Every structure is written in C-alpha cells, then in structure tokens.
Amino acid sequence: MTNMPLLDDVLALADDDSATPDETKYLVIAAMEGDEELADAVGERYIPPEARPAEAPAATKPTGAYLRSVTVSGFRGVGPERTLELHPAPGLTVVAGRNGSGKSSFAEALEVGLTRTSYRWEERPKGWVLNWDNLHVDGPRRIRIGLAEEAVGSTVVGVDWPADATRFDALQSWVQRGGERRQGGLDGLGWTAAIHLYRPIVSHEELGGLLAAPPKRLYEALTSILGLEEIAAAQTRLDRLRAETAARPDAARTEATALKRALADCDDERATEAARLLRKHTHDLVALRALAIGATGTPPRALSQLRALIDIVVPEREAVEAAAKSLRDAVGALAELAGDLSDRATQQFIVLRQAVELHDQHGGDQPCPVCGIGELDKEWRSSAEAALAARADDERILGDARRDLQRARDAIRALVGGVSCPTEPDDVVLTSVGSATEAWSAWTAAPADDLQLADHVMREYGRLQSSVAAIHAEAAAEWAARQDAWAPYATRLGTWVDNAEAAQADEPKAATAKAAFEWLKAHAEIIRNRRLAPLADDARRIWAALRQESNVDLKAITLPAPRGNTRQVSIEAEVDGSDAGALGVMSTGELHALALALFLPRATRPESPFRFVVLDDPVQAMDPSKIDGLVRVLAELAQTRQVVVFSHDDRLPEAVRRLVADARVVEVTRGIGSVVEIQELSDPAERDLQDARAFVRDDAVPDDLLRRVVPRLCRSAVETAARDAWFARAFDAGSTRQQVEAAWESARNQPSRIALALHGDSGRSVKRWLDSPSYRKIAVEVCGGGNHRALTADPKYAVECVGKLVGDLRSRS
C-alpha cells in the first residue's frame, strides 16, 4: 500500500514544478503508487490522485505495548527461574549489577524473545552460539516476556528449547494473549516489520557497531523508518521503465554503429549510400528501406550498366529471315511493275489527261491541238476517259508496290537499329564486350541498297547473335554476383530499418521515462531530508544534552542521494567552530553518545508500537558529565516511554538517584549455582517513605517543620503507590496511555485514586477497605488532613501506618 503522506509530498513538489511536462509528472506519481498504475500511465489510461490538503489529519498511532516482566530460566547467566518485574507505564527503571551478575542475561532474553536472535551473538564467533544455556540448571530452558498491550491487555511471549537442544537456534517461540490459545511464532504480535524499523532494544555492542557497521546499514534503517522505501521502489520502477523503453532505441543506435562498420567493408555503391545516410543525426528510414529492398529511383551505376547489357535484345532469326525475304520480294515486285509502265507511256498519259482538261475548259468539240487533223469530240472524249482510267489502275498498283518496298525496308532497318550498343561498364571488366561491340558495329553498318541490305543482315546476324548471347551471360553472372554480395547487407539493413521504426515509436516514451527518473532522483533527496529533519533535530537535541564538556557540536544530518551502490548518512560537525566530519574527530565515548543520539529518536518514533526502550550498558566509555546528560535525556523520554536501562556502572544509578526523583532502581546479584537475586533498591514511594523516616529520626529537625513536611512526604508515597497500581491494572486491561492518564487526572482526591488502584473505578467507595485494618484509616488521615494542617499523631507511628498502606497498594500492582 502506498505511503499516502509520502505520495502527498511528491504531489506537492510536482504541483510546484511548472517547468516539467505533465506526462513526466504522471509517470513519477504512478511509479509511486505501483506497477499497475505505472503501466496505466504508460498506456495513457492513468488518472493521478489529487494532493490532500496540508491540514489533513495525521495517521492513527499504532497500538502500543509496555513491558510487565521478563522471566528467565536456564539461559546465559541465569540458572533457576527468576522474574524481573517491571512497571508497565512511562517511567525510568535502572537495573544495576556488577559484571557477571546476570543482569544482561535479562536484557538478552528480552532481545531473543522479541527478535529470535541476539546482536551480540551475531557478531561473535560461531562457538558463542553453542554456549547459550546455563550449566547449573537441568530443567527447562525458557524465557517469558510479559506485555501490557493497549486495547488488548495482558500478553505473554514465550521462548522454549527442547530438553535435548544444544543449539541456540533450536528455540521455539509463541505468543499468548489473555484468554486465547497459544500461537506459534511471533507473527501474532504483528511486529515483524516494526521490530526491525523501530528496534527498541540496544546493547553496548550494538551501539558501538551502529557507526562501525557498513554505512548502508544505518542509511537503510533510517530510510525504512522514514517510510522512504516507496521512493526507492518508484525509482526502481522508473529505472526499469527507462531501460525497457530505451532498449529498442539503444539497440538501434548500437546496431547502426555496427552496421556502418560492416558497410565499410562492402564496395557496393548502395553500401556507400547507406553508410552516408546512417551517419546523419536523423536517419531517413524511407531512403534506407528503399536501398534495402532495391526500390530506389536510380539504381547503382554499375548495376544499371550491367542491366543495360543484360537487356540488349537481338531479334529472333526467324524475324530477320522474314524481313530479308520481304525486302527482296518488294524489290522484285516493284521492278516488274516498273517495266510495264515506260516513260513514253507515262508522257502519253500526261498529254491525254491535259487534252481532256482542255476539252473541259474550252467548251467541248475542237480540233486536236497536237496534230490539227483529228477532232476532240464526244467519241474521242469517251475513248480518252477509258484510257485514263486504265492508266490510273496501273499507277495505283505501282504505288502499292513502292509502299510495300518502303515498309519492308523500314522493317529490316528497325531490326538493325533495334539492337543497343554494348557499352563497357564502369569499374567492371567483361571480356565479351569487345567482340559484341564489333559485331554490333558490323550489324549496324547497313548498306543503302535494299538487296545488299537483305544480304547484309543475313550475313551479320549469326555473329551478332552469338556475341550478344555471350555478353548476356557474362553481365548476368556479374550482376548476380553483385546482388548476392549485397544481399546480406540488404537483409541486415532492412531488419535494422524495421527495428529503427519501432525504436522511433519508443523514443518519446524513453525520453519521458528518463525525465521522470531524473526528476524523482533530484527531488528524492529533498523529500528524504525533509522527512529526516525531525529525527535529525531530535538527534542533535539529544547530542546537545550528551555532549557535556565536548567541543564537538553536531550539525547537519542528511541522507544524500545514493552514488552507485554507496549509501551513507552524512553527519557533519563543528570542532571549536570549525567544520569537521563528525566520526573522524570523536572519542570512543563521544561516538557512543552519538550512536545513542541516533538510536533513541529511531526507537521512539510516534509510529512505533513499542512504548518501551531498553538499553544495555549504554554508559561504557562515558565520562561523568555525559552520564548526567544521558540521565536527563532518559528522564525526558520517560515522560512518555517506559525506559529500562541495564548497567554495571555504579555511576548511572547514582546519577539517577540524584537527578530523577521518580525513577526505580533494581539490583541484580548472582550467587553460587547461577542463583540470581533481584532486589528493588528504591522506587519513588519508598524514597518518600525513607525521607519521612529520616525526618522522624533526625532530632535536629524542629517539631513544627517535622509535622508539616512528613504528611506531604506520606501523601506523595501513597499517591505514587496508588498511581503505579492503577497504571499496572489499566495497562494489563488493554487501556491506552491517554485513557489511563485521563482517568488518573480526573480522580481529584486520594480516596478516588485509591479506588482506581483497587477497583479501576474512581467512583467506587473504598471506605470499608480503608477502615480495616485501622492503620489504613490512620494513614489516609495523615495524608489528607495532615496536608492542610500540622500532623497531630505520633510522627513515627504515622509513617509506619503509611508504609503499611503503601505495601497494600503495591500488592495490587
């Protein structure tokens, strides 16, 4: 599910960016939402969400849990079963004990119970993992962790080992909530992710390793805490989309480069032209395809010349023979007709025709103008016209013969001229061209005389036909060889054009995907550091409290953009006002303090379900001033968190007693046979009683002061015990912290608060319980009336009665 506040951050940045096209923003937003949404955006089906108002309510806080107890048997330094009781409410508890006392076994048991592992053992040699069980116990080895879960109530987390178990990892975990059956494993808690994100337990070794570990471990931890995995996932999606959409364009560019190199090895003109077109920034795919399939308007010159030789047409022998015969026949026919029509007959025909015209023009009959004797009369006219008609028929036949001759002559000359001249191709040597050219020259040297022409074509045809057949074969072989040589290049070029056309369709998508990836990469750092800012501010504030007497001032803590596989938190510092890298200038104690400053904000995030923080030996290598600073930090955290600190260093409980009035101090000791004893050295109620007893024993204290102060101390002790009992009861019942504190604040007087502690109901009467035994009534009178007027009862007896009442209330917690 998308982290909506994070998506809102991206939406807001996108809305503020007017320079980036919408389609680029849509890809970014869709990538933030998921794979399906990104696919929709690529397919132009995506509808982006609208940014929610800045004042939108924050997400509901998760259900929280407090620690009630840790019970250990046969584990590490604890032999027979012992239980460390904890108060399940905000507050500070110090578990003190020397090295080897078994106190850290409780801390490790808590870590193992909630995480099924131990940081200390993970970093140790393999042999450590085998030496986990206590040698002084033959019975069961087990861990029990009591929890008070808000809205759930009492819960127990158990860890058991089989009786014959030798390996630590043979453990069996389970969870059991009040009134329910056990559930195997820890999934029932719902903390699988939270225990890694907000790890609430840290040891001295882990603090040291926090900054010594590979840099990406802290980077990834902070990224997870801040919910920034969605940005990383979106960047991965966009990077994948960028690679997918750029695959064909990139492949086309790569193949174009390889194709240009290959074409350089080909001496075909088409290869030269293809290489020229491929060198252009923008490829003319139409022209390149035409080269590949041979559809160019102007084919290569050598191929054109070869094709011209192949296309030379020599007429069929039958056609030549028929043409020669037709010419001879036409010549003979005309000669025969011409003999019959002599020149004298032609002249007589002309004179006769002119006489008929004269007869027509000058009115009919008249003497013959030639001889002067005969008459040009009607009879003559009839005879002349008959003669002219006969002559016209002869002339027509003669004209037809002449036309037949011309057609025969044109036909044979067309055959002669229809054969193209064989031309030697450029850069191609053909052995048959010379003889073919000679044969062609002889063939086309046709004589003017018709009969000689007919003889000529019959004589030269055989030579022409054989020489042209030879050049046909040689030119066709050369043409085929060139086509065969070009074919693989043409096929490769055609395939590339197909791919390039598909790549052109992907270019806009690839450009948009790249722009989206770069946009998110640029803005991710802004979002990371915006989200880190509160945590970084907390870390600097904690460091300011811990850095007592240190000249190192912590400055910026940022999450720079990853560089390749490098992910590292940037921690900047100043030393005496000069910039410096934090880690390089810090002492061991300062590094531990810095690690705490980074750990505590992470462990106490509002989103964490853990209302407790557990620190095991955090003060090693710290000087006294830093310990005081740590106690103040822990006391502040304890206002809203249950803080449990295990320590072998006596300086910590001393500082806690001095600086935190309401803290608890528990001591753990270990005797023979790994028998561990747990003793509560002080709690707030007990300290108030001790102070009251000290006042009573001190003879130097004026009586009037004694009778005014003791009731106040007694009232504080009773209210503290009642508060602890009420908080324990309420949290065990599953109430939330807000409900518990509100109920306490609404109980205005001491009886109503005692009623909360006893019954969980401030309105319920506790008069009968307070009246018996009698010390309870006396104690309440001391705490009530004594606070408004001086104590009238014996101070020593009054404090004794109050102590018993406090004990009764403790038994209810």
TrEMBL record:
GO terms for biological process: double-strand break repair. Residues 524-651 form the ATPase AAA-type core domain. Heterodimer of SbcC and SbcD. GO terms for molecular function: ATP hydrolysis activity. Coiled coil: none annotated. It comes from the Bacteria. This is Nuclease SbcCD subunit C. PANTHER family: ABC TRANSPORTER ABCH.3. Belongs to the SMC family. SbcC subfamily. Residues 69-121 form the Rad50/SbcC-type AAA domain. Pfam families: AAA_21, AAA_23. InterPro entries: ATPase_AAA_core, P-loop_NTPase, Rad50/SbcC_AAA. Gene3D superfamilies: P-loop containing nucleotide triphosphate hydrolases.
